[in-house]
Amino acid sequence: MLQLDDPPTGERPKPPSALRRTRRDPRWARTLVVTGAIMMLLAGGAFVAKDLFVGYVTGNVQQDDLIVPAAEQQGRHASNNGAKTILLVGTDTRPDQSPGDAVRSDSIIVVHVPADHSSAYLISIPRDTWVRIPEFSNGRARYYGGHDKINAAFAVGGLKLTGREQRRYGMALLADTIEENWGLTFDAAAIVDFAGFTQIVEVLGGVDMYVDQETRSVHIGHDAKGETKVPYIQRFNTSGGTDLIPVAGITPQTYHVGYQHLEPWQALDYVRQRDTLPNSDYDRQRHQQQFIKALLRGIAGRDTLTDPAKLRKVLDVVGQSMTIDSGGIDLQDWIFALKGIGGDTLLTVKSNNGTFHESSVQPGAEALDDTTLALLEAVRADRV
């Protein structure tokens, strides 16, 4: 249950460093998707004017002090050597969402890069996982600590804030929550707006990927005249789930199994679906991971690399779709350190064996099974 109040009159908002408990190890934030795209470009066998390319990229991306404030970064030694663990958060803001509305983390992915930097593992944490969320204040709202689903942490951290501050404090509390429950700290992080990925796919002209199960859309359908309509009425039920009530005369957009080319609107719609899938959010997690890999392949493809105007447009929208934090390490150093990772060594891993694992203390919520807990411990110790 959320317990919030307003700060006393005259209390000035505190920086994130003053709001969180002291950590043994410093953490800084960077990006998975931008770095992944860049390292594939540099390692994909096509030579680009490297200095000009890297300089353009590093000057184009949005940067902010998401986890470690700039004041804490001054004077500390930061190295891109050794194993790295990255927190990737995807948000899926609604087109009709008002400024100040709570934003929950729609997708939470822990990315682990072993010490040899030869591969990367993508591990999704189910959004409904029941966790302890530590006490936190963002200067406008205070949370006294308690239990909730993990996707609430990002929302609570940014409550009563907007824009940049909402993202910064939301990420801070989510990272604290993961550390509180599983002992993981992060060397890098990125907040990605999945809606912004539509623009990337538009520049690429679509994305080629394998649809691994028939998927019906709850958001897009068509009537007999071919006009776009919403195919279902969605209603929350008493168990915390969603009931889908079909709208008469509307045929849902359906994605059939097989390799295919998805248009931009189809790609975003496909990776948003979970209510019509047998394993719900687990199936969606897998589809989002597959989409990221397909997107990286598209960015690193010959058609993009050999078209400077197209490549520049791609990099422009990639930078606009996420927020990163250099954290005291030059982004060019990260590009060099991780240049050996490509699509074939970006490995997706199932949590809870890809099925719902109900929490023993909170019906309707999830818990991580023993195998997944062991996996996270292996990440912490760099033994994946």
Keywords, please?
384 residues, alpha+beta, Nucleotidyltransferase, domain 5, seven-stranded mixed β-sheet, three-stranded antiparallel β-sheet, 13 helices, globular, disordered N terminus
Question: What does this entry look like structurally?
Answer:
- The structure is a single chain.
- With 384 residues, the chain is α+β, with helices and mostly antiparallel strands.
- The protein has a domain of 253 residues: Nucleotidyltransferase, domain 5, CATH 3.30.420.
- Helix content is 34%, strand content 21%.
- It has a seven-stranded mixed sheet with strand order 1-17-9-2-3-4-18, with helices on both faces. It has a three-stranded antiparallel sheet with strand order 12-11-15, with no helix packed on it.
- β11 and β12 form a beta hairpin.
- α2 packs parallel to α9 and α7 runs antiparallel to α11.
- The longest helix is centred in the middle third of the chain and has 20 residues.
- It is globular and about 60 Å long.
Shape: globular
Number of strands: 18
Q: What's the main sheet like?
A: 7 strands, mixed
Helicity range: 25-40%
Q: Helix/strand-derived class?
A: alpha+beta
- Architecture of the domain at 16-197 and 310-380, CATH level 2? 2-Layer Sandwich
Q: Write down the Rg.
A: 21 Å
Mean pLDDT: 77
Spans of at least 5 consecutive residues whose pLDDT stays below 50 are 1-50
* CATH class division of the domain at 16-197 and 310-380: Alpha Beta
Measured by DSSP, the beta-strand proportion falls in 15-25%
What is the tally of helical segments? Answer: 13
Distance between the termini: 35 Å
